[in-house]
Design goal:
The protein contains five helices and six strands, in the order αααααββββββ. With 193 residues, it is of the alpha+beta class. Among the domains are: 47 residues, no CATH class; 38 residues. The two termini are 70 Å apart.
Length: 193
């Protein structure tokens, strides 16, 4: 059984709970003797201290007028102390220059990123030549071609009817051909190792 907290029991004793919370608390109190004793203790404290129920009269209009006067006085004092010179960051020229520098920085970053992302291809024998020298396996229209360096080997089957190509995650490739004359299936597997 979950008991209401002390604040809820105290508010119930004073009659200050909302309708739903009051209903839940009364339902709990009907089954729990310990919480009923605590509510009775709160009632006894409220009966012993009747002066807690009496609140002094407060003139809210007078208090609001005093607060407005204090705010006006603070603003006037701030005007007396304020410097007549504008700080550099508030000068319009420097505000525009800061925006221009920020935009120029973003443009430079984007341009540098584009240049680094896609370097210009070179020709063999130049310093920026990035030609791939490893083994390449690629599908061509009538077979598979394996290239390494400047040499290539092709496994082709001209005149094949259905060609099914599949590529493995390890760099291998498989091609299946159906010969139109015999109906035989030829399967070529090539690994990039």
């Amino acid at each position: 059984m979950k008991h209401p907290n002390q604040a809820t029991l105290a508010l119930h004793a004073g009659g200050d709970l909302g309708p739903l919370a009051r209903w839940r608390t009364e339902r709990h109190l009907s089954r729990c003797g310990r919480c009923r004793e605590e509510v009775e203790a709160f009632d006894q404290v409220r009966e012993m201290l009747p002066e807690l129920a009496d609140t002094p009269e407060i003139s809210w209009n007078r208090l609001a007028a005093e607060m407005r006067a204090n705010i006006r006085l603070g603003l006037a004092a701030g005007e007396c102390v304020r410097s007549s010179r504008m700080p550099w960051r508030d000068v319009p020229f420097f505000a525009g220059a800061r925006a221009l520098v920020a935009v120029a920085s973003v443009v430079v970053l984007v341009a540098a990123g584009m240049m680094l992302e896609r370097p210009a291809p070179g020709t063999p024998g130049t310093a920026n030549y990035t030609g791939y020298t490893g083994t390449e396996v690629q599908a061509i229209h009538d077979g598979i071609q394996v290239r390494q360096g400047g040499q290539s080997l092709g496994l082709m089957h001209s005149g094949a009817q259905s060609v099914i190509q599949s590529v493995g995650a390890d760099g291998s490739m498989r091609v299946r051909f159906v010969d139109p004359e015999t109906g035989y299936v030829t399967i070529n597997n090539v690994n990039a190792d």
